[in-house]
Amino acid sequence: xxxxxxxxxxxxxxxxxxxxxxxxxxxxxxxxxxxxxxxxxxxxxxxxxxxxxxxxxxxxxxxxxxxxxxxxxxxxxxxxxxxxxxxxxxxxxxxxxxxxxxxxxxxxxxxxxxxxxxxxxxxxxxxxxxxxxxxx
Length: 136
Prior knowledge:
Blueprint: E1 3-6, E2 11-12, E3 22-29, E4 37-42, E5 45-50, E6 61-65, E7 69-76, E8 79-83, H1 88-100, E9 105-108, E10 111-115, H2 118-127, E11 131-135
Parallel strand pairs: 1-5, 3-7
Antiparallel strand pairs: 2-6, 4-5, 6-7, 8-10, 8-11, 9-10
Helix pairs in contact: 1-2
């Protein structure tokens, strides 16, 4: 099986010219989207993904193209906690707890989104910080 290095996103399926090629979607967990280096298997071979700068993978991003294949990302939802601190003190306590666990965090407006972990869920309940568990 061959290996292909991916150092940039080639486009997105939403506006990519397929030109009769077979489209294959490789599953990547939502929690892995923040990683800088990934390795995934495809019918065209293993893809070693290493993106530079602030570039992040999104659903439909095209990673590899040859005469027969277009390989694109399919984001698989993860269980996440959406945390909505009410005060600056709560926000600091949450940031400290998540930072101590070295867990990736995404800020969306006044909420923090983090991969679900039972210990973190228990801590948030103990701190009485509002949160909800969902799949994204």
